[in-house]
Amino acid sequence: MEIILIQDVNKLGQKDDIVKVKNGYGRNFLIPKGYAIAATDSSKKIHSENLRQRAHKEEKIKATAQELAGRLEGTKITVGAKASSKGKIFGSVNTIQIAESLKEQGFDIDRKSITLPLDLIKEVGTYQATIKLHRDVKVEIEFDIIAE
Fold first, then answer.
1. For each of the chain's 148 residues, which pLDDT tens digit applies?
2. Which of 4, 40, 75, 84 lies 20 to 30 Å (CA to CA) from residue 123?
3. Environment class of residue 104 by beta-carbon count within 10 Å: exposed (0-12), middle (13-18) or buried (19+)?
């Protein structure tokens, strides 16, 4: 079954992608939840027209994202966490703390667009995070975790 995604679906595709899925997944989950619509001939024509009209706006958004990525490129942030004398963190560092540290430096980044290489960071050290600013623009930033 072919569907047109209305919004980003993790591990499936981005908004406006036409993807093939199993019939049950499309009919019973994606379409009723409002994540997708069935890709019929008429909906494909409407979809292509909408994409054509939106292409100009997308270029402006992408240019803004690339400009922000250029400013973020050399940025190094520091996140403080309570830690033991051996460097083990009590709790973990997550994307919320990284987003707050970026906000302190003047970058307003949504925490959902930040991806950490590990699920939980539990030790003091230097790590890298990926920030997805646009579907085609990603930037890697480095952050240090220090003991408070």
1. 999 999 999 889 998 899 999 999 999 999 999 999 999 999 999 999 988 888 888 889 999 999 999 998 888 899 888 888 888 888 888 889 999 999 998 889 998 999 988 767 888 889 999 999 888 899 999 999 998 8
2. 75
3. exposed
Please, are residues 114 and 139 in contact by the beta-carbon 8 Å criterion? Answer: no
Q: Which helix (H) or strand (E) holds 43?
A: helix 41-72
**What domains appear along the chain, each with residue ranges and CATH number?**
2-68 (3.40.5.10), 71-147 (3.10.430.100)
Query: On the CB side of 31, how many CA atoms lie within 13 Å of its CA?
Result: 16
Write out the two tokens for 8: 């980003």
Q: Return d(Cα 124, Cα 70) in angstroms, integer.
A: 27
